[in-house]
């Protein structure tokens, strides 16, 4: 039985971590599955607190099931979500673990991603109330959830936009390599480029920010307007959103300074930065890896041979969706 349970848990973990959601959301769902979230019933059992009443509704005991599915306001959010879930119809489900098990068995990675981001947003809502006594409504919870959902496949931009996927890699004592590919609404490459900063090694977020600024500069040189820049770096994307809200400390942080440069470059355009999963950024990642070999180079209306089959795979995927 222990071996069977181990295999089952392994499959559940694999399905959760392949969902189209930010890593922090998938980690929370995995912790919820293992009943490891610090809900009040768990804290009471450990002798840390003396009362396990739900801090949000004040009516039931705060178990993982109650916090993420059964609290009355939580039920309303699930029903209003894209899943349209009616929690009250889940008669045979007694724990969150059982429900997550059902989800991974029935849902694809996109729908499972929606589950992950909503569960994360609900837990965030709960913590905001506990720590700051601020109640987040349905629009705020869903906006938070949407900010954590991102596809794991490349999606073409709407005409006449251009999509620029970029990525950076840092190899200790070697340098920082960068790659970018610009594609139109049909998925056809308009240009691609590599860059290599020899002996200059940065933290991941700095390298990605430098790559973002470099990709913006190349887009200007190539006369591309209305560009959707896309990254798979969650840290860069989160920090970018803070900069766009003008919350960054531009005077003291190099990362903020780099992103402020990017913000200024985008000021008079309709360009933007979006987040995508690793699978949706594989062309740029492959190009960036090859930058260690190619150095600084630009391909017009093409990509290097080493990345061509990834472009073809994205194009094939698009055709299959039509």
From TrEMBL:
Xref: Pfam families: RVT_3, zf-RVT
Highest taxon in the source lineage: Eukaryota
InterPro entries given in the database record: RNase_H-like_EbsB-rel, RNaseH_domain, RVT-Znf
Domain RNase H type-1: 168-288
MF GO annotations: nucleic acid binding; RNA-DNA hybrid ribonuclease activity
Residue intervals of the Reverse transcriptase zinc-binding domain: 14-78
Protein name: RNase H type-1 domain-containing protein
Annotated source species: Phaseolus vulgaris (Kidney bean)
């Amino acid at each position: 039985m222990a071996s069977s349970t181990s295999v089952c848990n392994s499959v559940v973990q694999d399905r959760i971590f392949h969902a189209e959601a930010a890593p922090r959301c998938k980690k929370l769902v995995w912790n919820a599955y293992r009943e490891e979230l610090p809900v009040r019933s768990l804290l009471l059992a450990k002798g840390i607190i003396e009362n396990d009443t739900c801090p949000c509704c004040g009516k039931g005991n705060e178990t993982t099931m109650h916090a993420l599915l059964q609290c009355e306001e939580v039920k309303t959010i699930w029903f209003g979500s894209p899943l349209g879930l009616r929690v009250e119809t889940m008669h045979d489900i007694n724990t969150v673990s059982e429900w997550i098990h059902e989800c991974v068995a029935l849902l694809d990675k996109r729908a499972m991603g929606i589950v992950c981001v909503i569960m994360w947003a609900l837990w965030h809502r709960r913590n905001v109330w506990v720590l700051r006594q601020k109640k987040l409504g349905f629009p705020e919870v869903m906006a938070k959830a949407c900010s954590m959902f991102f596809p794991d496949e490349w999606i073409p931009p709407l005409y006449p936009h251009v999509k620029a996927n970029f990525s950076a890699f840092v190899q200790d004592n070697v340098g920082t390599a960068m790659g970018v590919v610009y594609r139109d609404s049909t998925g056809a490459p308009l240009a691609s480029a590599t860059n290599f900063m020899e002996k200059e090694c940065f933290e991941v977020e700095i390298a990605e920010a430098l790559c973002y600024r470099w990709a913006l500069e190349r887009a200007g040189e190539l006369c591309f307007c209305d560009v959707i820049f896309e990254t798979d770096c969650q840290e860069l994307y989160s920090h970018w959103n803070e900069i766009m809200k003008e919350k960054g400390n531009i005077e003291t942080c190099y990362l903020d300074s780099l992103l402020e440069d990017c913000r200024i470059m985008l000021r008079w355009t309709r360009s933007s930065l979006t987040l995508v999963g690793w699978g949706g950024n594989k062309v740029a990642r492959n190009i960036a890896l090859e930058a260690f070999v190619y150095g600084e180079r630009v391909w017009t209306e093409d990509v290097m041979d080493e990345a061509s089959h990834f472009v073809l795979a994205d194009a094939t995927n698009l055709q299959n969706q039509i």
